[in-house]
Amino acid sequence: MRTTTTTTTTEHRITMLLLLRTKTASMSRAVFGARHNRTELETSSSSCYNDHHHHRRHRHQEDNTLRTTARYPLRQNGRRRRRCVASKIYSSSSSSSSMDDFLTITKPDDWHLHVRDGSKITSVVPHTARQFDRALIMPNLTPPVRTAEEAGTYRKLITEAAKETNARFEPHMTLYLTDETSEAIVEDAAKSGYVRGFKLYPAGATTNSSFGVTDVKRVMPALRKMAELGLILQVHGEVTHQTVDIFDCEARYIDEVLKPLLDEVKDLRVVMEHITTKNAADFVSTFPEDGRLAATITPQHVLLNRNALFKGGMRPHVFCLPILKREEHREAVLNAAVGTKSERFFLGTDSAPHPKGAKESACGCAGVFSAHAALNFYAMAFDSVGKLDKLEAGKNYGEMVDMTEKI
Ligand code: DOR
Ligand code: ZN
């Protein structure tokens, strides 16, 4: 997988203390599963909006060289153990840590992130800014972020919220594509310098998607203009027909919408967001043109299969859309991330915080919050197939654009 980078200078290198001796299964449990899942994700969801104590702990630790990004108190065999997953920022190239315990990679970017609005921004953003220098910010606020001007205002708030943690943090923006998105809106977006593309939510597919696209035919002029101006279409790839099983919505979207769209708008660059199926992994890996189609991959879709939703009872904190799939799909997505076409797959957490009460509800919101330990989660998944060496790769999201231009 491409963990894309802004720079390769040594002070931007991040070293993660990993728990390499722990088996993946128990790591997954520690992060998302069973009682530990409850503890970890409850903490993270509530800490997004309410738990300032959690933030104070981080601030205190930032005074030292070692920045702890997450601590997992684990109970194993009846005994309580503390394990620490930490990241360490170095100001020089020296990395004297033991190979067994540390992995050093160039600092990556998060190409799919929700940071919400209002006071939530200041709670959520520092988690990402601690591990990343850049992120692509999703526009599904209420009302959505539809113009470059609105994105500019939003971007300033995010930069401000990140400043104390990481003054280098750059939010990159994507605008919410609606049936009304005009060519003029696309032109303004291209001129802005900070808008990377447009996010296509099929209307009704997910959280705050009611302003989304009702039929791709309606946005063809905007899509053609995007192709002309080099903006990237980020797609939530799920059909919304009530008659289609929730586990099949992604596969159906590829056949019914994505393939025809890529055929019709020849120069359009598309990122299929948060892929969850073998169908999507294969589709992206085997797409004939380099640089025109890529995908983002979340931590939960490479760590968990759909059993996690029901393990010992309903697990609202691992409910997201697209929903977790069968084990064979989890494996296929992880294999794509570490495989021979890995440069087509980008890190995109889709970290999507909701208030605790909105998750633990009779009609709980979709979204997994993972920003507090995003890199660690990916490292666990990659380690589970012995491919930690694949966690780092050099190319950046923008180079997808350049690659296409060379074709
Ligand atoms: O699970 C999800 N949560 N999927 C999405 O597509 C949106 C996101 C959110 O905004 O909460
Ligand atoms: Zn998302």
Shape: globular
Largest sheet: 8 strands, parallel
* Count of extended strands: 12
List the strand order in the largest sheet.
5-6-7-8-9-10-11-12
Structural class: alpha/beta
Percent of residues in β-strands: 15-25%
Q: Which whole number gives the mean pLDDT?
A: 78
pLDDT below 50 for ≥5 consecutive residues: which ranges? Answer: 5-99, 398-407
- What is the string of helix and strand elements? EHHHEEEEHEHEHEHEHEHEHHEHHH
Ligand inventory reads: (4S)-2,6-dioxohexahydropyrimidine-4-carboxylic acid, zinc ion
Number of helices: 14
Rounded to the nearest angstrom, the distance between the terminal CA atoms is 22 Å
Q: Which quaternary structure do these chains form?
A: single chain
How large, in whole angstroms, is the Cα Rg?
A: 20 Å
Helical proportion? Answer: 25-40%
Question: What's the SSE blueprint?
Answer:
Blueprint: E1 13-17, H1 24-31, H2 34-49, H3 52-62, E2 66-76, E3 79-89, E4 102-106, E5 110-113, H4 120-131, E6 134-137, H5 148-163, E7 170-176, H6 183-192, E8 195-200, H7 220-229, E9 232-235, H8 249-264, E10 269-272, H9 278-286, E11 293-297, H10 299-303, H11 327-338, E12 345-347, H12 356-359, H13 374-384, H14 397-406
Parallel strand pairs: 5-6, 6-7, 7-8, 8-9, 9-10, 10-11, 11-12
Antiparallel strand pairs: 1-3, 1-4, 2-3
Helix pairs in contact: 1-2, 1-13, 4-5, 6-7, 9-11
The structure holds (4S)-2,6-dioxohexahydropyrimidine-4-carboxylic acid and zinc ion (ZN).
